[in-house]
Amino acid sequence: MKILVINCGSSSIKYQLYTMNAEKVLAHGLVERIGSEQSILKHQGVDIEPLIVTAEILDHQQGMNRVLSLLTDPQQGVLQSIDEVKAVGHRVVHGGEDFSQSVVIDEHVIASIRKNVELAPLHNPPNLLGIDAARHHLPHALHVAVFDTAFHQTMPLYAYMYALPQILYKKYKVRRYGFHGTSHQYVCDQAAKLLGRPLEELKLISCHIGNGASCAAVEYGKSIDTSMGLTPLEGLMMGTRCGDIDPAIVPFVMAKEELTLGEVTSMMNKHSGLIGVSGISSDMREITEEAFAGDKSARLALEMYTYRLRKQIGAYVATMDGVDGIIFTAGVGENASVVREWTLKKLSYLGIQLDEEKNAMLSSHSQVISRGDSKVKILVIPTDEELMIARETYRFID
Length: 398
Prior knowledge:
The protein has helices at 60-71, 107-115, 124-137, 157-160, 166-172, 181-195, 249-257, 261-270, 273-278, 284-292, 296-320, 330-335, 337-344, 356-360, 385-394, and strands at 2-9, 12-19, 24-32, 36-45, 51-57, 85-92, 103-104, 142-147, 203-209, 213-219, 222-226, 325-329, 367-368, 377-380. By secondary structure, the protein is of the alpha/beta class. The protein has two domains: 2-147, ATPase, nucleotide binding domain (Nucleotidyltransferase, domain 5); 198-380, Nucleotidyltransferase, domain 5. Strands 5-4-3-2-1-6-8-7 form an eight-stranded mixed sheet, with helices on both faces. α1 (60-71) crosses α3 and α10 (284-292) crosses α11 (296-320). The protein starts with a strand and ends with a helix. Mg(2+) binds at residues 7, 385.
C-alpha cells in the first residue's frame, strides 16, 4: 500500500512516499522556489543517488507534475505507475473548530479549510494549492486532510477561551487553537510504547522545540492544554518569535517607534526570540556555542529560553496534578543537551533524576534519558510528522 504525504508552503512542496506495510519511506524530496525560473527540486529514492534539479516551476501544479514524474522515472523513480499511489495525506495547518480529526477531502472540506484562511493566512492558502494540484494529478487516489490543530480540539472550554469579551469568540472565533498537533500526538504514542504502558494511563508533557516551539499537556491520550494560541506566536520563546509578552507592549512600541501594525507583527514573529535577545542567531547551536564562549547576550538568550520552558512544564504539572513523563522532540529538543539539562535542573522537586551520560549522547533513536530511580521519566523522541500523517491517512483505507 503506497501513500504519498504532501506538505505545501507558499513556494514549496515537501513530499514523502511510504509503503505502509512496513511504514518504510520509499522516496522523499522538496520543491523550492516555486514561481521562479530557478526553482530547485531535491529528490531521494531508496538506494538511489540523490538528485538535484534546477528548472522553471511556475506553480504548484507544475511542481506536483515534476514530483510524480520523478517518482515514476525509470532511473530515479520507485513506482511503475502513479496508479500505485492509493492515497495522499495532506498537512493542513488550521482546521479551526470545524475539524477535531483527520477527514477525507471533498468539496465541503475544501470550503471549510478556505473559511479558516483568515486564521492561518500564510499556511492554509498554500495547503489548498497542494490539495488542488494533487487531486488534479491523482484523481484515482483517496485524499485526506490532517490538521495541525485537530489534536488540541479536546482542550476544555476554560483552557482555550481568552479573557476577552465573548462577542469576539462568537463573531470571529478568537480562542486558543494550538499547533504541532501531529508531532505531539506522534511522540506521545511513541512514549507510551517506550515506557511499556497504555497511553490512556499516562500524564505526559510534550515539548516540541525547534525554530517554532510549543508544549502540550497530554492527559490519558488527550491534549488538555497547549502553549500556542490563536496563532503560533503565543507561548514559549522561539527562534525568531517572542512568545508571551504583555499585550500593552504592542501599542506602546508602535507609538514610540512609529511602527505600522504590519511592522510590529513582523518584529514579534521574525526579529524576536533567540535572535532578538542575542543579536547573533536564531539557531540554538550558535547560541549555545557563543554562550559558552562568554557572550553575555547569547547566555541571556539561553537562560531566558530554558527558564520559560521550565515555567511551562511546571504549569502543566499543576494542570494535570502530576506527570509521568516529559518528552523532548524536534530540532532543539532532540539535539540540544544543554537545553534539556538547564530546563530540568530546577525541577528536582518532581523527583527527576537525569542520566547525564545519556543526556549528552546524540542518538537518532527514541530513548529514556532519566535514571532508573527517576520518579518522572525523561524521554528524547525524534518526531515524525510525515509518518503520523501517513498513519492517519491509512486509517481511511478500507
